[in-house]
Amino acid sequence: MRFTLGQLAEVAEAAVSGDPDRTIEGVGTLAAADTRQITFLANPQLRKYLGQTQAAAVIMTPADAEGFSGNALLSDQPHIAFARIAALYARTTPHTPGVHPQAVVHESTQVPASACIAAHAVVGPEVVLGEGVFIGPGCVVGAGSQIGDGSRLLANVTVLHDVEIGRRVLIQPGAVLGGDGFGFARDGEAWVRVPQVGRVVIGDDVEIGACTTVDRGAIEDTVIEAGAKLDNLIMIAHNVRIGANTAIAGCVGIAGSTTIGRNCLIAGGVGIVGHIEIPAGTTITAGSIVLKGIKAAGVYSSGTPLEETASWHRNYARAKQLDEMSRRLKALEKELAELKRGNH
């Protein structure tokens, strides 16, 4: 697929600096793009590649473009401009509306003429499907679930009963929505299963990554509000609520009944205990463990940064002595205070 730089400028809402008739055939990174591709500069740490890039054009801010002799698209938001352009070149699989002969759809479920049910998909009774919905190969949609207009379940997605999915939601392969939460009550040495009778409710424009799991609520619903973006391999337990436009990176685990506010950023590998609140606008850095609620929005971190093994062993050995050292320090402070009183 080919576009001129001028055509891409219109799509990206950017200004052309250079040859508007230059043909662009794809996208690439600043360091590795070839003479047929367009790239972008948004991270100052990558500016070192600007002088040596082979790209046909670079998307960047007017300030970054000063002194650059090549073709450029000028935008105050280069990453967003690049996203709009990359969408033109992204490989997409066309979906023909209709029900594949190898799909199974319950007779009580009505499939809109614009929807597509792919091979080996199973759609249960009394499911409500919106216009333009895509149910990919191997997907399962349980009884009474609802999927809004334009939403897509790509492949092998499992949506269990009574799950509500909004409009334009994208769910990547292998995700599971509506599985039972981890609900058990202790009876002596045995465990008694507590029925999970809540739902999962997904707002509009949410994206859920591959193999992410969202458990249904124990009594009330598990809710992911509009615009939230979830990466791969995230575990969301029962009764969790995730606010609108919050983004969560891969391998995060969120225990039950935790509320995360709007516009939060949760980096990869974070663990969050249950029954706490994280306020809107909070950022939690990678690998952190959140053991209690957060009172005010900000940037929070925990954990031990990576260091050379021998040094880590020494520091860990000293850390095990901190309690004893603390007691000795308090005793010395007490003795010093008594000596000072004796001198007066």
Which SSEs are present, and which pair or pack?
Layout: E1 3-4, H1 5-12, E2 15-17, E3 23-24, E4 26-27, E5 37-40, E6 57-60, E7 72-74, H2 78-89, E8 98-99, E9 104-105, E10 116-117, E11 122-123, E12 128-129, E13 134-135, E14 140-141, E15 146-147, E16 152-153, E17 158-159, E18 164-165, E19 170-171, E20 176-179, E21 184-187, E22 190-193, E23 200-202, E24 207-208, E25 213-215, E26 222-224, E27 229-230, E28 235-236, E29 241-242, E30 247-248, E31 253-254, E32 259-260, E33 265-266, E34 271-272, E35 277-278, E36 283-284, E37 289-290, E38 299-300, H3 309-319, H4 322-342
Parallel strand pairs: 4-5, 5-6, 6-7, 8-10, 9-11, 10-13, 11-14, 12-15, 13-16, 14-17, 15-18, 16-19, 17-20, 18-23, 19-24, 20-25, 23-26, 24-27, 25-28, 26-29, 27-30, 28-31, 29-32, 30-33, 31-34, 32-35, 33-36, 34-37, 36-38
Antiparallel strand pairs: 1-3, 2-7, 21-22
Task: Describe the 3D structure.
The chain is an alpha/beta fold. Among the domains are: 3-89, Udp-n-acetylmuramoylalanyl-d-glutamate--2,6- Diaminopimelate Ligase, Chain: A, domain 1 (3-Layer(aba) Sandwich), CATH 3.40.1390; 310-342. Helices cover 15% and strands 26% of the residues. Strands 8-10-13-16-19-24-27-30-33-36-38 form an eleven-stranded parallel β-sheet, with no helix packed on it. Strands 9-11-14-17-20-25-28-31-34-37 form a ten-stranded parallel β-sheet, with no helix packed on it. A hairpin with a 2-residue loop joins strand 21 and strand 22. The termini are far apart. The mean pLDDT is 96.
